[in-house]
């Protein structure tokens, strides 16, 4: 498999690296975390240079750069500790609208997203198991002129920042193939009556919410795609979002490794830089190998997103499980080499550690993906 980047992809990588690096220097994510927000000016700059449109199809106003572009963007965000609603707004909401939305929905919602004027949160997970659509218990009951939604969602990232929420729910009294309930998604303003949100800060400094829906009414026009079953589209985008998070984690691992190597060159014990000690040299080599393996398997998963099932699922689960294990190893090693200072807010290493821990809590744990991969081995 060829992992060589094209000239356009290298230009995209350099552009995102520059913008993300400037954001990190002028407004570190830990500062934004302290006020529970994100850098709105940075978000606007992403829109101005076309990065919010990079991965969407040309028919929807995008640049059709593909999943490798998402990987490059997210890796830069990870390296520079960027807090943003990119995954929920672009990878989830915009992609779902582009793939399954009606023409009127695309015309209404996509231009404000691409211009940086609208931010979306995604209500998908409902507990520890958010790996596929089978776990969804939130229900949309059909009414004469719309739907009434009952249920709850957990760990809804960026809801505090968002104007709109996409709610994934089972449709009552509707069945798709194999007798399974039809799964739909609905767009509703975050301030709608019937939404009760409890906001909190996650360990990596981002914002998340637990949301309860009590007789939330949405008009029929708010159902993405009209009356179609979105199960396959949602599971495809779930895989894409998982790969995006893996790319973010590999970028974070790279930054932590770089900081550790630099620290080992300057920190002295017994009159010598600690980087001259062979045991630490071996540990940093192991960190490098873990990072390179993680980057390679993430790139492999990004290229496999267009593969047929179950090959796509296998590639995604292999990446999520390996990046999760290697990411924790790299961060634990980075803190160990830094010593106690590695756990303080003053150093980026501690923030990268928290970012990896948050990564391991999203879209399936390491154990879940190992089990999923094993189950998929029996499928052709």
TrEMBL record:
Gene3D superfamilies xrefs: Acyl-CoA dehydrogenase/oxidase, N-terminal domain, Butyryl-CoA Dehydrogenase, subunit A, domain 2, Butyryl-CoA Dehydrogenase, subunit A, domain 3
Keyword Oxidoreductase annotated: yes
Phosphoprotein is among the record's keywords: no
Signal peptide start-end: none
CDD domains: ACAD
Superkingdom of origin: Bacteria
Occurrences of domain Acyl-CoA dehydrogenase/oxidase N-terminal (ranges): 6-117
GO molecular function: acyl-CoA dehydrogenase activity; flavin adenine dinucleotide binding
Domain named Acyl-CoA oxidase/dehydrogenase middle: residues: 122-215
UniProt entry keywords in alphabetical sequence: FAD, Flavoprotein, Oxidoreductase
Cofactor: FAD
Domain (Acyl-CoA dehydrogenase/oxidase C-terminal) ranges: 243-370
Family: Belongs to the acyl-CoA dehydrogenase family.
PANTHER family per record: ACYL-COA DEHYDROGENASE, ACYL-COA DEHYDROGENASE FADE28
Designated name of the protein: Pimeloyl-CoA dehydrogenase small subunit
């Amino acid at each position: 498999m060829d992992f060589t980047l094209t000239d356009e992809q290298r230009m995209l990588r350099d552009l995102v690296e520059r913008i993300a690096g400037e954001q990190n220097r002028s407004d570190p994510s830990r500062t934004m975390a302290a006020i529970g927000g994100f850098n709105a000016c940075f978000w606007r700059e992403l829109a101005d240079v076309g990065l919010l449109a990079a991965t969407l199809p040309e028919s929807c106003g995008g640049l059709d750069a593909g999943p490798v572009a998402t990987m490059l963007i997210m890796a830069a965000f990870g390296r520079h500790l960027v807090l943003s609603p990119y995954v929920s707004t672009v990878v989830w909401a915009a992609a779902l609208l582009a793939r399954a939305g009606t023409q009127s929905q695309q015309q209404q919602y996509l231009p404000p997203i691409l211009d940086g004027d609208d931010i979306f949160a995604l209500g998908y997970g409902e507990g520890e198991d958010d790996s596929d659509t089978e776990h969804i218990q939130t229900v949309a009951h059909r009414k004469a002129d719309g739907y009434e939604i009952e249920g709850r969602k957990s760990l809804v990232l960026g809801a505090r920042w968002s104007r709109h929420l996409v709610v994934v729910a089972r449709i009552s009294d509707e069945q798709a193939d194999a007798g399974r309930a039809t799964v739909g998604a609905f767009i509703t303003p975050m301030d709608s009556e019937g939404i009760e949100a409890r906001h909190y800060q996650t360990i990596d400094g981002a914002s998340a919410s637990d949301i309860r829906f009590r007789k939330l009414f949405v008009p029929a026009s708010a159902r993405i795609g009209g009356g179609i079953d979105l199960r396959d589209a949602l599971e495809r985008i779930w895989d894409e979002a998982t790969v995006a998070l893996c790319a973010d984690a590999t970028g974070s691992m790279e930054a932590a490794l770089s900081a550790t190597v630099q620290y080992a060159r300057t920190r002295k014990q017994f009159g010598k830089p600690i980087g001259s000690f062979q045991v630490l040299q071996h540990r940093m080599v192991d960190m490098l190998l873990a990072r390179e393996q993680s980057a390679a398997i993430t790139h492999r998963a990004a290229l496999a997103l267009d593969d047929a099932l179950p090959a796509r699922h296998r590639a995604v689960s292999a990446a999520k499980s390996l990046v999760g294990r290697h990411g924790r190893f790299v961060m634990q090693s980075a803190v160990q080499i830094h010593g106690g200072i590695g756990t303080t807010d003053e150093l980026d290493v501690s923030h990268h550690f928290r970012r990896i821990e948050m990564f391991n809590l999203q879209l399936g744990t390491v154990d879940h993906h190992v089990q999923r991969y094993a189950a998929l081995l029996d499928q052709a």
